[in-house]
Design goal:
By secondary structure, the chain is an all-alpha fold. It has a domain of 155 residues. Helices cover 65% and strands 0% of the residues. The chain contains 11 helices and no strands. Helix 3 runs antiparallel to helix 4. The chain is globular and about 70 Å long. The two termini are 32 Å apart. GO terms for molecular function: bile acid transmembrane transporter activity; sodium-independent organic anion transmembrane transporter activity. Belongs to the organo anion transporter (TC 2.A.60) family. Keywords: Disulfide bond, Ion transport, Membrane, Transmembrane, Transmembrane helix, Transport. This is Solute carrier organic anion transporter family member. It is a multi-pass membrane protein.
Length: 279
């Protein structure tokens, strides 16, 4: 009982609030950024621009792993204690790296990267072929004529959120894509979370080296694949159905290769009382 004590640090509250603010700032980038590109870019160039956006988004975690590898080599209390008095090394299980340093570096970098967005114009001129779209302009003219002829409708109760949510979830293609994305991100997050720990335990690597290897070998191929996918879509000018078939074929091929992981493994370490007897 004398060894038990309540935690006196409330630093986790700052981490929680910081991650909440980061999420608020990052959320508009993907939906609004892709819509921005789709509205103001040529139709055949949109896949390449979106591929560049996602490629850079994948390079971020890679540099994050490399930064985490560097910070893990530094002692957690760097700048506050005499490093010469530290007797343990990063290979020791008691070693705690400077995990907090990555938050400061990435925060300053994110702030500097956000400054150019302040100089974007409020509105851009759309390409001529979009402005001269006969189908769209004719549709708008017909809608204007109908509004003039039809009597004013009675105001309906505002249920924008419920109506929008119902329309979105009733779209079969969007709902299928949503389920597919959930499955992909579930596997991807599990891979990034437990693969470094597996490398540490199974192969006796340090946290720093595990993060370095994951960031260097796993994420760059994904970034290259995203960029090549955008180029292929632009070259062959794929429609929605064509892009869906292409995505399904590549996902099925990737799934087939992933099954090979079941045939690769290592024997567990001998742990007394767990995998072997105490004798």
């Amino acid at each position: 009982a004398g060894c038990e004590k309540e935690p006196s640090s409330y630093m986790w509250i700052y981490i929680l609030l910081g991650n909440m603010l980061r999420g608020i700032g990052e959320t508009p980038i993907t939906p609004l950024g892709i819509s921005y590109l789709d509205d103001f870019a040529k139709e055949e160039d949109v896949p390449v621009y979106v591929a560049c956006l996602h490629t850079i988004a994948m390079l971020g975690p890679m540099f994050g792993f490399l930064l985490g590898s560097l910070c893990a080599k530094l002692y957690v209390d760097i700048g506050f204690v005499d490093l010469g008095s530290i007797t343990i090394t990063p290979q020791d299980s008691r070693w705690v790296g400077a995990w907090w340093l990555g938050f400061l570096i990435s925060g300053v970098t994110s702030f500097l990267a956000a400054i150019p967005f302040c100089f974007l114009p409020k509105s851009l001129k759309k390409p001529e072929e979009i402005n001269n779209d006969k189908t769209s302009s004719g549709l708008l003219e017909n809608m204007g004529t109908m509004r003039k002829t039809l009597p004013p409708a009675k105001p309906k109760p505002r249920k924008y959120f419920y109506t929008s949510l119902k329309k979105v979830l009733s779209n079969r293609m969007y709902f299928t894509f949503l389920c597919c994305s959930l499955l992909q991100f579930n596997s991807f997050i599990g891979f990034l979370t437990y693969k470094p720990k597996y490398m540490e335990q199974q192969y006796g690597q340090s946290t720093s080296k595990s993060n370095f290897l994951i960031g260097l070998t796993s994420l760059p191929p994904v970034s290259i694949g995203i960029f090549l996918g955008g180029l292929i879509m632009k070259k062959y000018k794929m429609s929605i159905i064509g892009a869906t078939k292409f995505a399904f074929s590549m996902s099925f091929l990737a799934y087939s290769f992933t099954l090979l992981h079941f045939f690769v493994g290592c024997e567990n370490h001998m742990v007394a009382g767990v995998t072997v007897s105490y004798e």
